[in-house]
Amino acid sequence: MSKKITMPLTAEKVKSLKAGDSVLLTGMIYTARDAAHKRLVDLLEAGEDLPIELQDQVIYYVGPTPAKEGQPIGSAGPTTSYRMDSYTPALLEQGLKGMIGKGLRGESVITAIKQQGAVYFAAIGGASALMAKCVKSAEIIAYEDLGAEAIRKLYVEDLPLIVVIDAKGNNYYEIGQEEYLKTLR
Amino acid sequence: MRELHVSKIIETVKKLCIDANYYLGQDIRDRFKEAKEREDFPMAENILDILIENADIAQNEQRPMCQDTGMAVVFIEIGQEVHVIGGSLEEAINEGVRQGYTEGYLRKSVVGDPIERINTKDNTPAVIHYEIIPGDGFKVTVAPKGFGSENMSQLKMLKPADGVEGIKEFVLQVVKEAGPNPCPPIVVGIGIGGTFDKAAFLAKKALLRSTSERNPKSLYERLEEELLVAINDLGIGPQGFGGRTTALAVNIETYGTHIAGLPVAVNINCHATRHSEAHI
């Protein structure tokens, strides 16, 4: 059974999510990956305002393919998250409540997730044609020059996700693999 | 001497870039189905279903199966009796990539310089490997390589004394360290022998071989099978959430090497192990 979650992702909603939960996410989310993250954190370090308000928001690590005519977006699956690790704690401090990507996160990110009461979701890596069907609208709102890496505002309906790291720091990559290995013993 | 005009090469490379990104190979689909039958861990079964559905959507709706449509790796087998006319062969291949990635709505993921990092906006340059073969044939294979998995690849110069056990240990270590990052279930390409550069080339070449074909030499056929079992015993599973299916296949390619060396390269590919080929 999947839990239905709608944006914005408040602290209350974050608390209800546990590592291993299947989630269908609906609402407005932002996209950003490597180059966009660098620009956002450079702005913070310079003491300037960000082009997006992060409080209770979610960032999806995705660089979509170009949209064909009549479609809001091209294929849109998650990119590998660890490349964003050095930037993530600073964004969580700005009120960001969730990240969507795939793969492992570093200790500093897990610590920041616990401190800020946030959540890390995985989308299914490579299932990009399927996930694109959940994206109902897409609009570039910053860093258009970055092309696939520009910041987009997406409206998604029932985007299928799995909670990997919950606000308590439980890690479903570890839990899932341990549970499987137990079935072998 | 057979004459082959570059316009034919441009057209072919263009089509192969698109085909490889839209259509998942039948061998990978067969591996997904076999994996589904053997897998009894619920989350893993669920993910395999999603991956099969995704490949169907991509094929039916003519869209890329993954948003990382890769850097174009192009393998050319050119007969020594072939004379390419009408322009530069290398420029023709890059022009095919340029047209394929633009007309196919594929993501342009290539930067012109690794430090300056300015996107070339047409996915060139391609990485091109040429092989001269006897006769007047001309074969092109386009293998778009996503970097979620490419980044997890490794190469190690083992000692001859490390032998088969050393190879196994290194491969398992690479797969373990990669964990969920390269979008398992993965296909593992392994190059053994040659020099530092040759081993890496062989590992990449191994990924072109169908997952239903084993290495013709029984020593390596056995090693492919043993490694597949050992990798799947790690429990990483589809997407790293646990399960039996961490890898769909292990393909090994080998070459002679020096008395003092045992180079081993492990090139990891995600479940979308894409390649399309054509003879022109």
Automatic annotation (TrEMBL), chain A:
Molecular functions (GO terms): hydro-lyase activity
One Pfam family named in its UniProt record: Fumerase_C
Transmembrane segments: none
Annotated InterPro entries: Fe-S_hydro-lyase_TtdB-typ_cat, Fe-S_hydroAse_TtdB_cat_sf
Keyword terms, alphabetized: Lyase
Domain Fe-S hydro-lyase tartrate dehydratase beta-type catalytic: 8-174
Family designation: Belongs to the class-I fumarase family.
PANTHER family, sorted: L(+)-TARTRATE DEHYDRATASE SUBUNIT BETA, L(+)-TARTRATE DEHYDRATASE SUBUNIT BETA-RELATED
Protein name per the record: Hydro-lyase, Fe-S type, tartrate/fumarate subfamily, beta subunit
The organism of origin for this protein: Alkaliphilus metalliredigens (strain QYMF)
Automatic annotation (TrEMBL), chain B:
Keywords of this entry: 4Fe-4S, Iron, Iron-sulfur, Lyase, Metal-binding
EC number: 4.2.1.2
Lyase as UniProt keyword: yes
Keyword Metal-binding: yes
One function term, GO molecular function aspect: fumarate hydratase activity
Group of enzyme by EC: lyase
Residue ranges occupied by any Fe-S hydro-lyase tartrate dehydratase alpha-type catalytic domain in the UniProt entry: 11-278
Family as reported in the entry's similarity comment: Belongs to the class-I fumarase family.
Protein name: Hydro-lyase, Fe-S type, tartrate/fumarate subfamily, alpha subunit
Organism: Alkaliphilus metalliredigens (strain QYMF)
